[in-house]
Design brief:
Elements (H helix, E strand, L loop, with lengths): L11 H8 L10 E2 L6 E2 L10 E2 L2 E2 L6
Antiparallel strand pairs: 1-2, 3-4
Length: 61
Amino acid sequence: MGAICPKNKHSKARRDSRRAQWKMTAPNLVKCSKCGALMMPHRVCKSCGSYNKREIINVEE
């Protein structure tokens, strides 16, 4: 029936320590194998338009 309602109250410290794990992390950046610019892994490079040493999109400079 009711597994939702807790029998005992959790303290504010327990609640806040659980919520303390929600934090932002800096994005992981790698160097592009073609142009050497920093980019996110497994994505097309924004500066040269290549992925896995192949040109995917044309980037006009």
